[in-house]
Recover the amino acids of this structure.
């Protein structure tokens, strides 16, 4: 009996390994083909008729699709390897289900990037939402996770509803083919643009449509969070970029509104990131702020194109496209690092962690790489794309008249976002990994195994490579870039290439100088004595770990200035008596959009409760609804 | 040209610690004391270099490696900064953006190494430093961008050569506002009075000094040297904004050094005559600088 159980276990493990490595192989193949397309290969097409109305199996891997496929294949493969060790070993069925949906998620995202037919696109889009929903709700014994899944599903479908409207209008205007490129500028292009930003913005997490993101991303298993934050929100960015390509010459107000939305998304997202107490929620909100950075880049690109300022346009789009890859890499790394912490300590709460860098050395170094990339430190990749977008804003300020103001909004907004992101990175690493452990959970943590470390090492290595070899990345991106900017005059790309070469040389020189200084200093130290002592407590002899700065106290000065952007309530129960007893401070942070924007909609509920009469659970009446609806449509058509 | 750029960078690396000595000397003179010799900071650096190191039991590799990284970051900023009418050693289109990012990484590393000790005092300084960073970076970038708009170029060399053309005669209101912003930024970034008092005794009121509490020996020397370099970079940046063109190269170099020394004297006098501000006034100072930068932009936009 036991032997039989043992063989079955071994079989299941072998099947799982086979699944994982075939996912990895598929990702590697996809990445390789995408690289081939990006480095000058022709676009790959595949077309077949489909027996669905308005549908064709039309797939094309052009430069833009290939560029978005890159982070998908990298983070997808890394996540698969990581997930093997990360998924809980309790239930075999659940593990297989997780891989099933993981595979569907990867495949549907690939189709979303490559689809050239509206129906196919929408089907893939829905499969993507549903597959990720099942992954988010993996841990469904937890009420919070169920709530997160519900919010996610509602938001996802609301977004799809807008997209259906978008494709219906676009398809009708283009004679049935929504993805037909190169038509004339449509009269309803402005409305289509708004629909695209709203519909894709839900998936991308643009403020105020982001509310599902900080619920859903932390709830998923960490390798899925990495994939969702690193890549899946980029499907929204991809959708907006693809629509911009299909809609033709943009108007200036598109650029203005994208810059405005981007700045709002960036600043509000970063502000929310710094006040979270849950590590994965910090990362989820920081994804919102990074999408803001991407949107500022896209906005600058669009505005530059509308104003016929090609350098501004090229820098903006280049920054946005590179940030898609860079954010995918470092956010994937960070979520996996956070997952390693959860795996070993069992908690995501920053207030219970601390000092992990000494106990989890590998994870500490890797996590530090990730946060420095997020803080836009040269040598790592985050600063490359941020510098390009800043540069675009700088060029935008050269515009004549009022349009220069868009440049300064982009520049100032991005600088503020970047500053807050740096604060968030420092807070995250400083509280969780430096200092002393704040609870027992943090004290007993051990390093995670090789299977979880290797994917993180690969991602961290890619962060360094794309940071130091930025011009090469841009070279790979060039075809995708010219697809969104339109044809560029020769010499325009000299500016972004020059900037990136400069950044790379600064990074290499800085790293070299740092290494030399460090080595020289070590030699000095060897001659002298080095001792290890407790941290100096300014004369206080009994320091405890609870006296350390917490995340909340670390960001307090900034919250005092920008706190109005987040909805934070503080209750302090302090009795006004002669000898006060223990006091209690409660602080609750809610999403500002949920409290200020969506809360008023609860009035709607009263109205909609009436409509609930229709939902009574009697199937024969439901069938009648269908019949009546069909009849009405028939009558309307036959009229 | 390249040889001169290198010579200027070496000059900066050599002269930077002098600035701290000048400030201390001026403060002493104003207070009626004789004061330490001007080369005192060099003596201190050499002394610290010869000392042993004490590390906190709490600390990790961050505390050991960050000082080198910080010196590298600020050192690269020195290499990028034009001086005496000559472009920096590293100069490319858009370097102004990278310059801000490089100073940012020095700040982030300082803060991380402070948090590495787990001390609440250092956490305090780190938290304040990050707040000032968040507030001042947008103002700095906008101020630089206003000059970039005026010169229509995005290189530090061109931005810093703004005073060498006739821009001050034609556009003095914009440039004066920009200079005011730069001055405030210099005070904030180099942690001088009224933002931070380097000579204070109470850890609770410090910003920069409290972050280096647990650094010792060569590490402390590196931190102090990096801070001196930062003062040099900021001084040069501010002086570049007003320095006219001189005929001979040695006059330009001399004027550059003289300008930085004069600016340092002004900082010393300010420091002797006023107290540190309350901490909650600092965001207002930084935000005010941002507002002035925007005002400069509006005037500049009205021109064109």
């Amino acid at each position: 009996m036991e032997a039989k159980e043992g063989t079955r276990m071994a079989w299941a493990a072998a099947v799982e390994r086979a699944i994982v490595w075939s996912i990895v192989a598929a990702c590697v193949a996809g990445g390789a083909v995408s690289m081939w397309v990006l480095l000058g290969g022709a676009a790959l097409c595949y077309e077949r008729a489909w027996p669905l109305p308005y549908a064709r199996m039309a797939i094309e891997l052009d430069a833009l699709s290939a560029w978005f496929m890159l982070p998908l294949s990298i983070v997808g493969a890394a996540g698969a390897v990581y997930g093997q060790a990360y998924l809980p070993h309790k239930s075999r069925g659940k593990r297989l289900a997780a891989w099933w949906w993981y595979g569907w998620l990867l495949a549907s995202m690939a189709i979303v990037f490559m689809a050239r037919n509206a129906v196919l696109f929408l089907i893939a889009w829905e499969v993507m939402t549903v597959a990720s929903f099942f992954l988010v709700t993996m841990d469904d014994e937890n009420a919070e996770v169920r709530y997160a899944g519900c919010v996610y599903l509602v938001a996802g479908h609301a977004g799809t509803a807008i997209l259906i409207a978008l494709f219906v209008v676009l398809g009708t205007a283009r004679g049935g083919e929504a993805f037909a490129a190169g038509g004339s500028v449509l009269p309803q292009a402005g409305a289509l643009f708004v629909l695209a930003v709203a519909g894709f913005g839900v998936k991308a997490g643009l403020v105020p449509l982001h509310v599902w993101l900080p619920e859903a991303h932390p709830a998923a298993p960490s390798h899925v969070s990495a994939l969702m934050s690193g890549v899946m929100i980029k499907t929204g960015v991809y959708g907006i970029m693809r629509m911009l390509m299909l809609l033709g010459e943009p108007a200036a107000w598109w650029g203005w509104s994208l810059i405005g939305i981007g700045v709002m998304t960036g600043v509000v997202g970063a502000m929310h990131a710094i006040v979270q107490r849950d590590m994965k929620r910090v990362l989820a909100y920081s994804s919102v702020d990074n999408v803001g950075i991407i949107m500022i880049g896209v906005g600058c690109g669009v505005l530059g194109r509308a104003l016929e300022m090609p350098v501004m346009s090229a820098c903006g789009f280049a920054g946005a496209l590179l940030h898609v890859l860079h954010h995918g890499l470092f956010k994937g790394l960070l979520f996996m690092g956070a997952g390693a912490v959860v795996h070993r300590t069992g908690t995501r709460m920053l207030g219970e962690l601390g000092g992990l860098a000494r106990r989890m050395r590998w994870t500490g170094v890797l996590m530090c790489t990730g946060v420095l990339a997020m803080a836009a430190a040269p040598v790592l990749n985050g600063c490359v794309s941020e510098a390009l977008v800043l540069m675009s804003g700088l060029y935008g300020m050269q515009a004549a008249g009022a349009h220069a103001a868009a440049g300064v909004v982009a520049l100032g907004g991005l600088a503020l976002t970047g500053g807050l992101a740096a604060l968030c990175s420092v807070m995250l690493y400083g509280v969780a990994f430096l200092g002393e452990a704040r609870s027992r959970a943090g004290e007993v943590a051990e390093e995670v195994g090789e299977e979880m470390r290797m994917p993180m090492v690969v991602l961290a290595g890619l962060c360094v490579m794309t940071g130091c070899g930025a011009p090469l990345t841009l070279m790979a991106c060039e075809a995708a870039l010219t697809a969104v900017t339109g044809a560029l005059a020769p010499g325009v790309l000299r500016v972004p290439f020059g900037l990136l070469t400069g950044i790379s040389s600064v990074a290499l020189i800085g790293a070299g100088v740092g290494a030399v200084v460090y080595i020289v200093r070590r030699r000095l130290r060897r001659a002298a004595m080095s001792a290890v002592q407790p941290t100096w407590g300014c004369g206080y002899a009994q320091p405890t770990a609870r006296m350390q700065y917490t995340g909340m106290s670390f960001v307090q000065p900034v919250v005092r200035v920008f706190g109005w952007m987040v909805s934070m309530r503080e209750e302090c129960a302090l009795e006004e008596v002669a000898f006060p007893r223990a006091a209690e401070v409660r602080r609750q942070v809610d999403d500002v959009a949920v409290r200020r924007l969506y809360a008023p909609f609860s009035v709607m509920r009263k109205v909609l409760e009436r409509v609930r009469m229709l939902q009574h659970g009697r199937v024969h009446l439901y069938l009648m609804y269908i019949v009546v609806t069909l009849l009405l449509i028939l009558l309307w058509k036959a009229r | 040209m390249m040889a001169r750029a290198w010579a200027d960078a070496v000059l900066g690396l050599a002269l930077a610690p002098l600035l701290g000595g000048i400030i201390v000397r001026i403060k002493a003179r104003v207070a009626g004391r004789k004061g330490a010799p001007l080369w005192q900071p060099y003596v201190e650096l050499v002394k610290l270099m010869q000392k042993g190191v004490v590390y906190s039991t709490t600390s990790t590799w961050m505390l050991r490696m960050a000082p080198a990284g910080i010196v590298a970051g600020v050192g690269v900023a020195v290499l990028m900064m034009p001086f005496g009418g000559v472009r920096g050693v590293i100069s490319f289109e858009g370097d102004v953006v990278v310059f801000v990012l490089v100073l940012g990484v020095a700040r982030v590393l300082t803060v991380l190494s402070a948090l590495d000790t787990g001390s609440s005092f250092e956490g305090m300084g780190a938290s304040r430093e990050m707040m000032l960073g968040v507030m001042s970076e947008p103002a700095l970038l906008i101020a630089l961008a206003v000059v970039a708009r005026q010169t229509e170029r995005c290189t530090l060399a061109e931005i810093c050569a703004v005073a060498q053309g006739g821009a001050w005669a034609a556009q003095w209101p914009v440039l004066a506002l920009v200079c005011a912003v730069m001055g405030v930024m210099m005070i904030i970034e180099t942690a001088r009075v009224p933002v931070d008092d380097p000579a204070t005794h109470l850890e609770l009121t410090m910003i920069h000094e409290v972050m280096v509490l647990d650094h010792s020996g060569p590490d402390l020397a590196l931190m102090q040297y990096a801070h001196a370099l930062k003062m040099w970079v900021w001084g040069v940046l501010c002086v570049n904004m007003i320095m006219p063109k001189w005929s001979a190269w040695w006059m330009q170099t001399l004027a550059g050094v003289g300008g930085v020394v004069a600016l340092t004297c002004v900082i010393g006098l300010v420091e002797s005559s006023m107290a540190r501000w309350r901490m909650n006034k600092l965001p207002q100072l930084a935000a005010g600088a941002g507002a002035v930068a925007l005002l400069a932009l509006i005037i500049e936009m009205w021109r064109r």
